[in-house]
Amino acid sequence: MHYGSHMDNFRFQFPTGIPYYHSDNLDLISTNCSTVNCPKDAAKDDRNCRCFYYKKHKLGNIVQLTIYNMGNGGGMGTGYAHPIHIHGTHFYVMKVGWPTYNASGFIDKMNPDMACPGDTADCNLIGWADNSWNNGAVQGMNTKNPSRRDTITLPAGGYIVIRFRALNPGWWFAHCHLELHLMDGTGWAYKVGDDDQIYMPPDNFPKDCGVFILDKRNLCLSGPIRADVGSFLPTNSGQAADRLGSTRIELPIWAERHTDRQFTELPTRPDPPG
Ligand SMILES: [Cu+2]
C-alpha cells in the first residue's frame, strides 16, 4: 500500500513552461488544480491529484502557514518527518507542535491540537481541535524570539506554524527536501505580488524555450508553445522512471498528510523581533 505525497489534497506537478511568461494563461503550461478531481479522502498513488498547486500572496503581507503531518502516516513506525524548504524568503518558526513519544522514542500519540482522530484515520483537510485557533490565532506561538531559517523539519504526528513577510515579488517554490517526496509531489508554489509588481527575467533569458519536458538526458525540448500542451503534462516520478526503463520506485511515504490548510494572509504588522 502506498500513499502519494499531498499538499492540501494535491500532488504538486511542475509546470512545463515558465510561469513568469504565462501568468495570463497558466493553463497553457500547467494543470489547473480547479480542474483536478482529487477527493478529500484521496489516497494511494492517485494520479488524478497532480496539478500545479500554488497560492498567491499580496506583496508586503505577513503570511502565516500551518503545515501538518498527521493521520494515516503520522503514526508509529510509518511516518516521515519532512524537511520543508521554502525558496524566495526566510521565515520565522512560530511554533512546532510535537507528538508525544513513548519510552522507546516512538510516537505514542499525535499532537492533539489538530482534530485528527488517530494514526489510522485519513486526516486530510482537518482543522484545529479548538475553533478559537482558526484564522491564524494559534495559541503558543513564539512571538518574542522565533528562529529564522529557510528549512524546518515537520515532525511526523505534528505540525509547524511559520511566518514570513512576502517582500520578494515573483514565483517561488516550496517543498519537502527529501528528494523522493519532492518528485512525488510534496510541494507547492507561491506567487508574491501582482504581475505589475513582479520583475521579469532579463530580456535575453531563454523564454522561447516555451514548453519543455525533461527527457532521459534532461534536455530542454524547445519549440513553440503547443496548444495541445496537455499531452506533455504528466511528468511525475512514476513516468520518469518508466521513461528510463526502470521499475517504478515505490516510495515509502505513508499517507503523508502535511497540509497547509490556512495560508492566512494576515494584515501587515511588524515582523517579530529576530
Ligand atoms: Cu517529505
List keywords for this structure.
274 residues, mainly beta, Immunoglobulin-like, five-stranded mixed sheet, five-stranded antiparallel sheet, 2 helices, binds copper (II) ion, metal-binding, oxidoreductase
Concise description?
The chain has 274 residues and is mainly beta.
Fold and architecture overview:
The chain has a domain at 11-29 and 48-130 and 146-199 and 250-266: Cupredoxins -  blue copper proteins (Immunoglobulin-like). Strand 7 and strand 8 (107-109) form a beta hairpin. The chain has 274 residues and is mainly β. The model is unreliable at 215-269 (pLDDT under 50). It is globular. The chain has helices spanning 179-184, 237-243, and strands spanning 11-12, 50-51, 54-57, 62-69, 82-86, 91-97, 100-101, 107-109, 147-149, 151-154, 158-165, 170-176, 187-192, 264-266. It has two helices and 14 strands. 5% of the residues lie in helices and 23% in strands. The structure holds copper (II) ion (CU). Copper (II) ion is lined by residues 80, 82, 176, 178, 181, 186.
